[in-house]
Each structure stands twice: as structure tokens, then as C-alpha cells.
Amino acid sequence: MSTTTAAPRKVRALPPLMSVTDAAAERLRKLYASGEQGKLLRIGVNTKGCSGLSYDMSWADEPAPTDEVVNNNGVTVLVDRKASLFLIGTTMDYEVKALTSGFTFTNPNEKGRCGCGESFHV
Questions:
Q1: What are phi and psi of 84, to 5 degrees?
Q2: Contact 18, 91 (CB under 8 A)
Q3: Which of 14, 23, 68, 122 is most open to solvent, judged by the fewest CB atoms within 10 Å of its CB?
């Protein structure tokens, strides 16, 4: 009788759920230190717009049992677990343009956006 032992399988590291750029981290630090002190930004996805999905951001006092906690670039954001499959690998940025400023998302899962850029589909 011979016994064969298999080498343990190497576990691959999962890609980060989300990453936060320096600009987004700086803006979040300012928000967390001022009017939203003690709160966390929660990112989700809602069905809305002409392409079907849109990013939803809200403030939370603490993580819910259904939140994924993302610590990146010195800040913490929450991701609604129902949105995680849509957001894997997404980069959150903060852009200041001539007439607008706000958080933007570069999502490798997006297959397209509507003309106004407010919604997307995967």
C-alpha cells in the first residue's frame, strides 16, 4: 500500500476590492475631519439611469454586517456587499474640474456608460 501526499495548494491572493487614489484619500480625510467626523463613506450600486446601474454614496455611523471594509491609502471606506461583484478592482478618485468636482470611479467591470456618464452597465 502506498500513500501519496499532495503538496498544499497555494492560495492566490484576491485582488483588492477597491483602491483609493491619493486625491480621493485626501478629500476623504478632510470630510472625515470636518462635517462627517465619526462617520464612514459607504459605496453601493443602485439600479438607476439609462444604462442600468449607478454608484451610490452615503454616510454611515459604523459598518453594517453586510459591509466590506476597505482600508487603502490611509482611509477606510465601506462597500455594500451586494455591490462587491460590480466593484472588484475599481479605483476611486477625486477630480476637480473647471465647473465641477467630485468622486469618480474607474471600474474595469464596466462594459459601457450612458451619454451623460451618470450610469453604467456590466
A1: -55, -40
A2: yes
A3: 14
Q: How many residues does the chain have?
A: 122
Give which of 44, 53, 56, 40 is closest to 80, Cα–Cα: 44
Query: What does pTM read for this prediction?
Result: 0.77
Contacts for 5-8 with beta carbons within 8 Å, 24 or more apart? none
**3-state SS of the chain: helix, strand, coil percent to 5?**
15, 40, 45
Cβ pair 113, 46 in contact under 8 A: no
Q: What is the pLDDT of residues 56-103, one digit of tens each?
A: 899 999 999 999 999 999 999 999 998 888 888 999 999 998 888 889
Residue keyed to cell 455594500 = 80
Residue 108, all three cell numbers: 474595469
Report CA 75 to chain centroid distance, whole Å.
12
Domains of the chain: 18-111 (2.60.300.12)
